[in-house]
Design goal:
This protein is mainly beta and 184 residues long. It has 2 helices and 15 strands. The longest helix has 14 residues. The protein is elongated.
Length: 184
């Protein structure tokens, strides 16, 4: 059996420009790196993994105490069960929560990418171990919210190894939108 492994690594640096007229700003991740692997032998398989800096930053012109007060409602409104609250360090969120198929009737594939099978996006059929944490920091002009999403998935039927899923940024943006709306 002959095996050929070809690796292609590309990095993309995103630059965000412009300001909005609102009192806050969401900063997307700075870099995206993609690695594609092709393995040939008796059969051929393509594996594509994407590594994304999943941290999002939301700058707010509101004091940290006011932002902290809206955080539980913001998570709840998206169907994210809060199981980690650290008021001393202003950390709140869901840590290693098992979810399946959707959050508040929104398919998980709208938020994360775990690859796909013949039946569609794997995020919609896999058991997902989701961590979504937000840390607030006080600034001279208000506060900053750092949100980090990590997700692992595995087939519900096969119970195989956990695979890393990547965020597309939508859930973090929705959380930022809810926070901003709650502060108006």
């Amino acid at each position: 059996m002959r095996a050929i492994v070809a690796l292609t690594v590309s990095a993309l640096t995103a630059v965000v420009a412009g300001c909005s007229a609102s009192s806050s700003k969401v900063t997307p991740p700075a870099t995206v790196a993609t690695m594609s692997t092709r393995i040939e032998g008796m059969s051929t398989a393509n594996l594509r993994t994407v590594t994304v800096n999943d941290s999002r930053t939301l700058t707010l012109l509101h004091p940290i105490a006011k932002v902290w007060a809206v955080m539980p409602l913001a998570f709840d409104s998206l169907g994210i069960p809060v199981n980690q609250i650290d008021p001393a360090n202003y950390v709140i969120g869901a840590s290693s929560v098992r979810v399946r198929r959707s959050l508040r009737k929104v398919p998980l594939s709208r938020y994360i990418d775990c690859g796909s099978m013949a039946g569609g996006p794997s995020a919609d059929t896999y058991e997902i171990n989701l961590t979504l944490l937000t840390t607030l920091k006080a600034t001279e002009t208000g506060s900053v919210a750092f949100t980090q999403l990590e997700a692992l998935g595995r087939s519900e039927s096969l119970r195989g190894d956990w695979i890393r899923c990547s965020s597309n940024g939508t859930l973090e943006r929705k959380l930022a939108d809810v926070i901003q709306a709650s502060l108006r």
